[in-house]
């Protein structure tokens, strides 16, 4: 996809602008809106699944209404530790990679990516169904078209930038908070007098069921309900993944966001479960459990004698449906962050670590968005199917994260005086998440859970193959570096400052660092054009990807690195008696950066000839080579040639050029006076070959002449 160019919404910004990170970063409130909507929107399907699992034993909802908030705070407490340990983001992926090992990180990352694709799909499908439930029944048949249209809209606004997408959706989020605060708060306060009766009935029912079925039955039923409502917890991971986009001080902002998210999710989910029991609601045909509850709460509401209850219920359901669209947006926001971090570690194609001029991982946004579209089309947008696929993967990451934290604090027991408390939190989180994961897999494996696990396993396998490919390429380039850097003096010192001739022919090189590829390209070009070239110019582009977009300090480090590499080229050339200089720039777009550098070189040296190197190794170039490597040199070559400038891509055969001469199949004509100038060794070898061929021809002729005489005798 390197050839695919997207229009920029504005010109590339200066990445060293000190206000850039402040303008793009999120305060705790906006982070809560952008990253917390996934968790809050789960109130549309998480708590109902929990309550349905208690059918016939609804009194246990009291324990779940208390247990859900406790488990939410336990998991969020673990992720507060993740934020403190990894303030540059990455969440569960970085936690598993660093504390448990790279392969555990691969599993965690693959599970998260699949989970976020399903987040986008199920959230859009659920939101569409919620909105269409307020419309004529004939509209329901068109839901899949509406699903796809909404996903395309979300992709578009995320390509414009994360902060812009959050601001667009902010009014919906606030409307959800307002309507649900009023509705749920009124429902609890208006029936607070029934709490003693509920407590009495709960105690009596527990005593009766324990005598009839035993305590194991009660505990198993509670755990099963917990697991079936596992979707309630999704979204807690998003804050730790996106902490690097938050305003300084990041740790405090991230932890404050996590507190806001845990508090709001606990209040909404816990209140809903308790209100189901308080109002004794049951599912009705054509209505969700929440819709039945909202109708029961608003029954009898009037304004000036006019019934207002149905309108209040309708507004609440609309905000609930629209919030699900924001949750889909959260998946589209957060998954590319995980993919970018995995691309930095070489588990995914490196193009996923690149940022667009709007500082979003454009490739990740497109892949996640269109993958969600495909999932919707395959499943027909049926929430009942999607919810089965949805609730497993996030607990894989939760469990690995808590296991990694537990291992870390156990190893820190001699260094951190607070290790006991932190270990207790992470160990408790591991028990909770691992239990829910095991029960969910057991309950939903035959109902489609196997498919989710299969897709995740395929993702893990592909990631491992991609990593092996990049590792083989790194080995090849390391061999090239070892070979070529032998020509560089051990203590390279720049020679005298040789004057440059702007009017003379100039060899311009696109290089990334001082390595074997760059040196091979330089020396090859020097052999070709060194007789008339007066200047040697090196162009270096510092690409700001996910690994560098962490703050001004990281960008300054990138600048120091690029200039150090450039100075080594200049020192090498001057040491060899060649006049040299360099230009460098810093951007999120490699093609744009190379074009800008070429324009600068042409402005200073109009007689420029451009060169770039390309590693050639047949054994490492499989059918997916083009997907794993962005061949931007060919794009820049095409554009420079269009503008009238020459560019040569120098092949570098790291395994050596095959010695076998090529086969010639077609008849070839040539000039009769063709004369090749060859060295003495070649001439001797050709004379030997001709003599051998002549001797063989003579032998064949003698055999043919003697054959008839032999037959006569």
Automatic annotation (TrEMBL):
Any idea which UniProt keywords this protein has? Membrane, Transmembrane, Transmembrane helix
Does the record's keyword annotation contain Transmembrane?
yes
Membrane topology per record: Multi-pass membrane protein
InterPro entries xrefs:
AA/rel_permease1, APC_K+_Transporter
Q: Which GO terms describe its molecular function?
A: transmembrane transporter activity
Stretches that traverse the bilayer:
59-79, 100-124, 144-161, 168-193, 213-236, 257-279, 322-344, 365-386, 392-411, 423-442, 448-467
Q: By what name is this protein known? A: APC family permease
């Amino acid at each position: 996809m390197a050839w695919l160019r997207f229009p920029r919404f504005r010109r590339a910004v200066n990445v060293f602008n000190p206000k850039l990170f402040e303008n793009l970063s999120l305060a705790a409130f906006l982070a809560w809106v952008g990253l917390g909507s996934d968790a809050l929107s789960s109130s549309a399907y998480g708590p109902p699944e929990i309550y349905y699992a208690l059918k016939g034993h609804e009194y246990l909802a009291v324990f779940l209404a208390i247990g859900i908030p406790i488990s939410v705070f336990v998991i969020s407490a673990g992720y507060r530790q993740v934020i403190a340990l990894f303030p540059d983001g990455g969440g569960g992926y970085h936690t598993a990679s660093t504390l448990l090992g790279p392969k555990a990180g691969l599993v965690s990352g693959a599970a998260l990516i699949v989970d976020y694709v399903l987040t986008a799909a199920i959230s859009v499908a659920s939101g569409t169904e919620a909105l269409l439930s307020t419309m004529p029944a004939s509209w329901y048949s068109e839901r899949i078209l509406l699903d796809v249209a909404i996903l395309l809209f979300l992709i578009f606004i995320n390509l414009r930038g994360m902060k812009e997408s959050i601001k667009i959706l902010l009014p919906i989020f606030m409307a959800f908070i307002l309507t649900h605060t009023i509705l749920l708060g009124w429902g609890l306060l208006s029936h607070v007098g029934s709490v003693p009766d509920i407590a009495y009935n709960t105690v009596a029912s527990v005593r009766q069921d324990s005598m009839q079925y035993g305590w194991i039955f009660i505990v198993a039923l509670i755990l099963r309900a917990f697991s079936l409502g596992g979707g309630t917890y999704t979204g807690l991971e998003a804050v730790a993944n996106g902490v690097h986009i938050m305003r300084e001080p990041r740790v405090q902002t991230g932890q404050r966001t996590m507190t806001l998210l845990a508090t709001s999710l606990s209040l909404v989910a816990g209140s809903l479960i308790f209100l189901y029991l308080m109002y004794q609601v049951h599912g009705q045909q054509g209505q969700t459990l929440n819709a039945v509850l909202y109708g029961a709460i608003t029954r009898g509401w009037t304004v000036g004698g006019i019934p207002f209850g149905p309108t209040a219920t309708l507004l609440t359901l609309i905000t609930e449906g629209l919030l699900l669209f924001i949750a889909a947006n959260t998946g589209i926001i957060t998954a590319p962050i995980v993919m970018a971090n995995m691309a930095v570690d070489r588990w995914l194609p490196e193009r996923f670590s690149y940022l667009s001029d709007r500082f979003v991982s454009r490739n990740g946004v497109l892949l996640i968005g269109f993958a969600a579209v495909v999932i919707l089309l395959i499943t027909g947008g049926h929430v009942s199917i999607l919810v089965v696929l949805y609730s497993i993967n996030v607990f894989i990451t939760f469990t690995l994260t808590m296991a990694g934290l537990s291992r870390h604090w156990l190893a820190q027991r001699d260094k951190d005086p607070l290790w006991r408390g932190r270990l207790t939190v992470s160990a408790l989180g591991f028990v909770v998440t691992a239990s829910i994961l095991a029960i969910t897999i057991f309950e939903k494996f035959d109902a489609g859970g196997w498919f989710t696990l299969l897709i995740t396993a395929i993702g893990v396998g592909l990631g491992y193959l991609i990593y092996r490919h990049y590792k083989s390429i790194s080995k090849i380039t390391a061999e090239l570096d070892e070979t070529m850097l032998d020509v560089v003096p051990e203590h390279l010192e720049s020679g005298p400052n040789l004057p440059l001739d702007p009017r003379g022919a100039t060899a311009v090189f696109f290089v990334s660092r001082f390595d074997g590829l760059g040196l091979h390209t330089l020396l090859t070009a020097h052999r070709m054009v060194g007789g008339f070239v007066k200047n040697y110019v090196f162009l270096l582009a510092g690409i700001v990807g996910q690994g560098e977009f962490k703050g001004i300090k990281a960008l300054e480090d990138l600048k120091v690195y690029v200039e150090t590499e450039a100075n080594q080229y200049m020192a090498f050339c001057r040491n060899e008696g060649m006049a040299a200089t360099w230009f460098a720039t810093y951007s999120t777009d490699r093609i744009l950066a190379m074009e800008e550098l070429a324009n600068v070189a042409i402005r200073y040296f109009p007689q420029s000839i451009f060169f770039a190197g390309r590693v050639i190794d047949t054994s490492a170039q499989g059918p997916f080579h083009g997907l794993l490597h962005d061949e931007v040199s060919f794009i820049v070559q095409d554009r420079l040639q269009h503008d009238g400038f020459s560019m040569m891509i120098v092949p570098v055969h790291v395994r050596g050029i095959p010695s076998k001469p090529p086969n010639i199949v077609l008849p070839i004509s040539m000039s009769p006076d063709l004369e090749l100038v060859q060295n003495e060794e070649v001439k001797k070898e050709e004379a030997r070959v001709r003599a051998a061929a002549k001797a063989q021809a003579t032998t064949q002729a003698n055999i043919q002449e003697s054959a008839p005489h032999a037959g006569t005798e």
